[in-house]
Write a structure and sequence with these properties.
This protein is of the alpha+beta class and 443 residues long. It contains six helices and 27 strands. A hairpin with a 3-residue loop joins β18 and β19.
């Protein structure tokens, strides 16, 4: 088995290939960088022993050290044996538990990569109290986390546990779950590379139109369909169950792995496996009532695009201009600011524009035909419990500038290196600008 290549890459490329920052915040770039990482999805069956169909008190300590074989792990039903599950897992980044059964969602993520922006979302619809999967007894839903592969290169990871059972009420709730998830992805992860892996409780043979709808809406690919079935998803019909070849094309499980690339991070799935021999006890018996599934991915960072790390707080709504930038140069910047930075608008030479945040006192800088943004200085400070952008200054290759807001001590300057320019932005915004990062392009 091939694991941990992501960590080997980071070690070998650290001196020369990864995106990085000087103390002043000036970016240093490589022309490209590559790496790989492995993922695991595992419903660990951590319900209280009286409700569990496995033996979590005995098996969870056995599961824990085996998680170290994988770089990013999503677990479901991590309820009442959470401490034992984490005890032998050496991943430096782990989500905190949301509580035991009836209190938490049972969803957690472990990663070798720096992880941030944890969001826990409960399904809008759950069906069944004492039957039909009993999904209303705990706040099932999904989580979102952001993992830093390299400076400015982030991968959004989603973990889910969809409504269970096949009665009409459960099927309707599960369809609503999937639509709620992909609507969230389309907003929160706009422009980002994405992996979704968890317990979907769906099968193509039962709900192919729903799965096709989600994959089309998000631009994602199912790794099992791509690698095991050569791109051909099963048709509606009888469930595919093949105990003689569980890693073959005629054995579908409800645990799934979906992914998509971005203009910055190109992902390629290179392996998929239902792990039928790894998570077993001394007698060869499975440690949970679900088989874990794994995949390995290779990634390549763009040679012509780069992004900075973001600066600021976590409030507001995420935005990313990466996939919305027109094939035209920035011709103007309009900054909306008062005591803080409310928002800004980029005008482009093709008469289109992109706006972010709210409105306030407006000031505009018009760029010459051969002029472009070379640096952005930002100041942040706390406002109502979270950092916001208090000050921004845009500078061009011709020495012109536009600034607004109130200067604060906490500051960063993003500067495009020679042969690059600042082409757009990403971050979070509401009525004001909460967080901002820059998108660089080669000239």
């Amino acid at each position: 088995m091939k694991f941990r290549l992501g960590k080997l890459f980071l070690a070998s490329m650290a001196l020369s290939l990864l995106l990085g920052y000087l103390p002043q915040g000036k970016a240093v770039y490589a022309s490209s960088a590559t790496g790989s990482f492995s993922v695991l999805s595992y419903n660990v069956g951590g319900l209280p022993w009286i409700l569990s169909s496995s033996d979590p008190a005995t098996n969870t300590p056995l599961i824990s050290p085996l998680l170290n074989l994988y770089d990013i792990v999503n677990v479901q039903e991590d309820f009442n044996y959470h401490a034992a599950l984490y005890a032998g897992a050496n991943h430096p980044y782990k989500t905190p538990t949301s509580g035991g059964a009836g209190i938490g969602s049972g969803l957690n993520t472990l990663s070798v990569y720096p992880m941030s922006d944890l969001k826990r979302v409960t399904w809008n619809q759950r069906y069944g109290i004492f039957d039909s999967g009993s999904d209303q007894l705990t706040p099932k839903g999904f989580t979102a986390t952001r993992h830093k592969l390299a400076e400015g290169a982030y991968l959004d990871i989603y973990n889910l546990h969809a409504d269970a059972d096949v009665d009409p009420g459960s099927m309707a709730a599960r369809a609503d779950n999937i639509r709620q998830l992909y609507a969230y992805i389309n907003q929160y992860s706009d422009g980002n590379a994405v992996l979704v892996f968890g317990d979907t409780n769906t099968r193509y043979t039962r709900e192919r139109p729903l799965l096709d709808e989600m994959l089309t809406a998000t631009g994602m690919t199912d790794v099992w369909v791509e690698l095991v079935r050569n791109g051909n998803a099963p048709a509606l019909g009888t469930a595919l169950i093949d105990p003689a070849d569980m890693n073959g094309p005629n054995n579908e499980v409800v645990d799934k792995i979906f992914y998509r690339s971005s203009p910055l991070i190109q992902l390629e799935a290179i392996s998929y496996r239902l792990e039928d021999t790894v998570f077993v006890d001394a007698n060869g018996k499975q440690l949970s009532d679900h088989y874990p599934i794994s995949a390995e991915f290779e990634y390549t960072l763009s040679a012509d695009l780069a992004m900075s790390d973001p600066f600021g707080g976590t409030g507001g709504t995420p935005f990313n201009q990466l996939t919305h930038l027109p094939n035209a140069k920035i011709s103007s910047i309009t900054l909306q600011s008062g005591a803080r930075v409310d928002g800004f608008t980029l005008g482009f030479a093709n008469n289109t524009s992109l706006s972010v945040g709210g409105s306030a006192n407006a000031s505009t800088l018009v760029l010459d035909n051969d002029e472009y943004i070379t640096s952005v200085t930002l100041n942040k400070a706390e406002r109502n419990g979270s950092d916001r952008i208090f000050y921004a200054r845009f500078e061009t290759n011709k020495g012109k500038s536009l600034s607004g807001g109130t200067a604060k001590p906490s500051a960063v300057t993003f500067t495009a290196p020679a042969g690059w320019y600042i082409a757009g932005f990403y971050g979070n915004a509401g009525a004001e600008l909460d967080r901002l990062g820059v998108i660089y392009k080669k000239l």
